Amino acid sequence: MTMKLIKLFLSLRIFALSFFLLASHFFYFPIVFVDANPTLDGVIQKDEYTQSKTYDNNNFELHWRVESPNFFMAIRAKTKGWVSVGFSPTVMMKDADMIIGWVESNNEVKIFDAFSTGDMGPHPPDENLGGNNDIIAFGGTESGEWTTLEFQRKLDTGDKYDKVFPSSGNIKIIVAYGSRDEFASMHRFRATDSITVEAAKVEKKYKEISAMEAKQLYDSDYTLMILDVSSAWKNGHLPGAVNIEFNQLTQNLGKFNKERPILVYCHGDAPAIFAADLLSKNGFSAVYRLLGNYGAWTREGFPVEKYKEVTKLKFQIGNEQYWLDETLKTMDTRPVILEGRTMLPIRFLAEALGARVGWEANLQQVSIYLQFIEVKLQIGNAMAVVNGKNTAIDPSNEKVKPIVVPPGRTLLPLRFVAESLQCKVDWNPAQQEVLITYAP
Ligand code: HEM
User: Fold this and answer.
1) Residue ranges, CATH 2.60.40.1210, the chain
2) What CATH architecture does domain 203-299 belong to?
3) Which residues of the chain have pLDDT under 50?
4) Is 92 in the pocket of ligand 1 (CB under 6 A)?
5) Which of 25, 203, 238, 371 has the most CB atoms lying inside 10 A of its own CB?
6) Half-sphere exposure (CA, 13 Å, Cβ side) for 310?
7) For ligand 1, is residue 93 a contact (CB within 6 Å)?
């Protein structure tokens, strides 16, 4: 559990600190994602480390990776005894900041954060000198003739018995291994060298955009999904934003249509960065993160929505006036009955619910998006598509279908659309009224 928290924290830091290459407008380029932290299990996997060197005719390997503020290293040697690395000695072994460890016959890993006080040792653990053990995590294996140790520490531990590593630059090192699982047994091999460390280039697969760019994207693309990962969604959110708190996102990924572009934000950076990263790693085609989050959007004076428990609409056949909650409104059209079904330009319903409506002229198709619901209807087609599933508009009458009436108005079957958007529909035959209730 602790390791998981450390990893979550680290990956948040990595994404917060790393830079982004994309500058193009609203075009989205996928970038190869390099997974960040090595798994410290004593097995060196391909791509876990970014740099490596070998010594002693390949009988000793050193692998390392910088993920500021952390440093990861693997030592692998052809021995059943101890393996070690030391950083920045002054003379021979003296003042080297050392890591020494081995794997016991019961597979227990022993590892020490040590310091060499003399030219030829001794190298007591930092703790014996009044310092700390600054190994954050480690793992190790002994397999066949080989011993592997992996460890993680901070580039700067703050301990005077540890050297401060640069996130980019050179470090003088000593390496050695011995034949026995014993802290004070002499080396079979030792060498002095220097290594170069450089920060791993972790690239984000999502694009960060300003509030202004987000608004343009919202205006130009009705398929855009907006995800608010905060706990404050009810108090105010971007128009049409769905709400899943960031810590619930993993188990709710199935609700999303990954083909749609998605804009994610929160009220602070960390949850939004986590969410944008998660979405982009899970095959979402285009992920955008709103820089400055909700605050940046409201500061621009862009429209926001508040959660409303219930919305009620009342339409009457032949009447251009309709009720939206307690307000009487007027349309520039009148609901009509065709094939026994009420037909209406869907805008009046959609806008009242906060849904977005798109029109694709070449397909003669209307798309309606409300929260996680997507409804697509085509002129002259008795079948609709609801969340990707073909659905009959009226199973009892295939003549009920979207139509265009002069001078080019699209009329949609009101009950089907409203019910697809999870509204309750009541028909009052005496008054010829349709009452629509939406309680999300
Ligand atoms: C375990 C107890 C250790 C003892 C008793 C010990 C002892 C010595 C002695 C006597 C020398 C000088 C002789 C020679 O060059 O071989 C030496 C050199 C050296 N030791 Fe150790 N050592 C120990 C552990 C380590 C460890 C853990 C490292 C880790 C990297 C290390 C790295 C080196 C290196 C690189 C040299 C050569 C330094 C130079 O010539 O500039 N030793 N050690």
Assistant:
1) 51-197
2) 3-Layer(aba) Sandwich (3.40)
3) 1-35
4) yes
5) 238
6) 8
7) yes
